[in-house]
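Hi R.,

As promised on Friday, here is the backbone we talked about, encoded as structure tokens. Could you run it through your design pipeline when you get a chance and send me back a sequence?
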């Protein structure tokens, strides 16, 4: 079914294309989703695109987490020579 010139297939409750798609995708990434409604609306493409989207979001969040950890280690390693060590016996 074609509606509005480019909408194809059954619609879920949240698919209204009124400018809230980014908010819907963000809430999907945070875990607020109805998988049953997605699989009823599109039995093949709904779950496929859902798992693909979640995998990309997971990889992106994991990359950001590791980047923050690596930057923190770099900063600490750079400042370690300026820190006083009370437990060092021989200098």
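Update: got your reply. Pasting your designed sequence below so it's all in one thread:
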């Amino acid at each position: 079914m074609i509606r509005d010139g480019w909408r194809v297939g059954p619609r879920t409750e949240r698919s209204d294309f009124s400018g809230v798609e980014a908010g819907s995708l963000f809430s999907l990434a945070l875990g607020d989703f109805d998988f049953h409604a997605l699989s009823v609306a599109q039995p093949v493409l709904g779950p496929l695109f859902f798992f693909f989207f979640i995998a990309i979001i997971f990889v992106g969040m994991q990359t950001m987490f590791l980047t923050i950890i690596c930057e923190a280690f770099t900063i600490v390693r750079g400042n370690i020579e300026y820190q006083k060590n009370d437990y060092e016996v021989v200098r």
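One thing I noticed while checking it: The chain has a mean pLDDT of 76.

Thanks again,
M.
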